[in-house]
Amino acid sequence: MEELALNEADDALLARVAWLYYNDGLTQSEVGHQLNLSRIKVSRLLDAGRASGLIEVRINSRQQGCLEIETRLQERFRLKDCRVIPDSTGADIDARIGQAAATFLMQKLNPGDSLAVGWGATVSNAIRVLGHVVHERRIELFSLTGGVQTYVQGMREAHWDRTPNIIPAPLVVSTPELAAALLREPAISSLLNQAIAADYKLVGIGGISEQATVVSQGYITAGEIEPLRRSGARGDVLCRFYDRTGQDMELPLHERVIGVDLVQLRDCEQVIGAAGGPNKVTPILAALRGQILDILVTDEATALSLLDAAED
Question: For the Sugar-binding domain, which residue ranges apply (predicted)?
């Protein structure tokens, strides 16, 4: 049999395959089903791991520590799943976590499945990576909010050939009355219902800082950040701000947002939050406390900080 050459992506996948097979005691077929791989692919990865020395009595990979952290995060925050990537100095954290979120979805999405996405730098990076998977598996894509340009740019860069189902409205409109009228429109309400029903939902997690995406995109001003912080805001998902316990805040801004709200998101299944970095520990922790997320994709340092903070 031809030997399988391992690159960095294969190393990460092999670590996960080996962990499930050797540590969790799953069969090769069960591992393949969980990671959306054929049994033959699982077998070849295990063979390659043994031949290369990555697998001895234990998993000889830098991914091992991350897998242990994933288990701790799942247990501590009652997550359905979790992905933690190793730290890497000097790399773009949004790009790396976006890549990790895309890799997770590549392992989970089956032909004909649907994916609903939020917005932000990390989600945009994931969208760019997912272009070929969407094409090959005929994945149906929906937006979770308005803000057409935000989605179109990322899909253009990814050369998507599938027509996405994008809510034809801004993310934030001028008045609550206009927002209410748009949300009653059958075309918009239908798209939102389909987004909520998608097989997976991918969202970014925003921090409360002058560098936050909601500020850089012009939805709030830098001058509004400190009042938000003083009022108890700790993060946002889909331009919906929440407090330290992950509970929705009553803000005039929310009445002008076009998109899925946090109450609806909590009622969904398979909601993936993708975020990392020192400035995201507090917003991620609050989102986890509020059970906004089912699945978390983050980096090692952020994961450890979350576990430490959860003990306070």
Answer: 62-307
Handedness of CA 211, 217, 219, 222 (dihedral sign): positive
State pLDDT tens for residues 49-58.
877 767 764 4
- Domain of residue 44 covers 1-52
Task: With beta carbons less than 8 A apart as the criterion, state whether 268 and 201 touch.
Answer: yes
**Number of folded domains in the chain?**
2
What region does 110 belong to: left with phi over 0, alpha with psi -120 to 50, or beta?
Answer: beta
pLDDT band at 134 (very low <50, low <70, confident <90, very high): confident
Are the beta carbons of 279 and 271 closer than 8 angstroms? Answer: no
82-109 burial string, b = 16+ CB within 10 Å, else e?
Answer: bbbbbbeeeeebbbbbbbbbbbbbbebb
Pairing of strands 271-274, 235-237: unpaired
The answer to whether the beta carbons of residues 35 and 107 sit under 8 Å apart is yes
Query: Of 193, 228, 191, whose CA–CA distance to 209 is shortest?
Result: 228
Q: Are 45 and 89 members of one domain?
A: no
Do 43 and 72 share a domain, yes or no? no
Is the Cβ–Cβ distance between 298 and 274 less than 8 Å? yes
State the pLDDT at residue 67.
Answer: 87
Q: Are residues 271 and 207 in the same domain?
A: yes
Q: Are 198 and 300 part of one and the same domain?
A: yes
Q: What is the pTM of this model?
A: 0.81
Domain identity same for 6 and 139:
no
| In the predicted structure, residue 274 carries a pLDDT above the cut 70 | yes
- 282: Cα within 13 Å, side-chain hemisphere: 14
Question: Is 58 domain-assigned?
Answer: no
Q: Select from 29, 52, 75 the last residue of a domain.
A: 52
How far apart (Å, rounded) are the C-alpha atoms in residues 222 and 173? 19
Alpha carbons 246 and 121: distance in angstroms, whole number: 22
Tell me, what's the pLDDT at 236? 96
Do 250 and 200 share a domain, yes or no?
Answer: yes
